[in-house]
Amino acid sequence: MSGPSIEALVVSPGHNYWFHSPDPRDGVGPYPTSYPDEVEVVAGQGIVGDRFYGKVSRLASSVSFVAAEALEAVEDELGLARGSLDARLTRRNVVVRGIDLNALRHTEFMLDAGAGPVSFRAAGETSPCAWMDDRLAPGARDALRGRGGLRADPTTSGRLRVGPVVLHAAVPQDPALAGARVRRARRLP
C-alpha cells in the first residue's frame, strides 16, 4: 500500500447548492467548479478563489476534506460499481486517500504536498446535505453520515497539490479506517 495522497482539489467561487436544501428543485447556482492540480492556501482565509475564502465562520470551515475511501464505502453500501461515484462531486476542497479524517477531528495537523507543510486546525465533520442524493446517488446522504469529511481552517500559508502527501498529526493514524463511519455520541437528556 502506498502512502497518503491528495486525489483531487475542488474550487468554486460561489455556492451552487444552498446549504441543506431538502429539494434539489430549489436550483443549482451558476458558479463554475474547477479541479486544479495545485491551490494556494492562506492562513486564516482558506483556498484562494474558493467560495469560503476569507469568510469568518464559527464552524472552522474555510477548507473541507473528504476521504476517497468514504465514497468507496458508499458505493459498497449502495450496491454500486466501484469507481462509479466521483468524490469531487461532494464539493469538498481536498479529496484525500490513506488519511483517517475522523481521527483528525478537533486536532491540529499538517499536510506537505512537496511545497512545504500547510497547517490546519480541524473542527468536526462536514455533514452531508440533501444534494448528495442528487449529485452522487439516491441514498448517498445517509451513507455519508459519519464519514462526510472534515472542516478545518488553515493556520499557515502554503500550497497543496495533487499527488503524494506527508501527514503530520499528533493522533494515531490507521489508513484502514479512512472510509469508516464514526457516529457522534448522542447527548443524554
Concise summary:
The chain has 189 residues and is of the alpha+beta class.
List its traits.
M1 Pyruvate Kinase, Domain 3, 3 helices, single chain, alpha+beta, eight-stranded mixed beta sheet, three-stranded antiparallel beta sheet
Can you describe what's shown?
Residues 31-169 form the MOSC domain. It holds the Pfam family MOSC. It comes from Angustibacter aerolatus. This protein is of the alpha+beta class and 189 residues long. It has one domain (6-171): M1 Pyruvate Kinase, Domain 3. Helix content is 11%, strand content 26%. It has helices spanning 68-78, 131-135, 140-144; strands at residues 5-9, 38-42, 46-47, 63-67, 94-97, 108-112, 117-125, 150-154, 158-161, 163-164, 166-169. It has an eight-stranded mixed β-sheet.
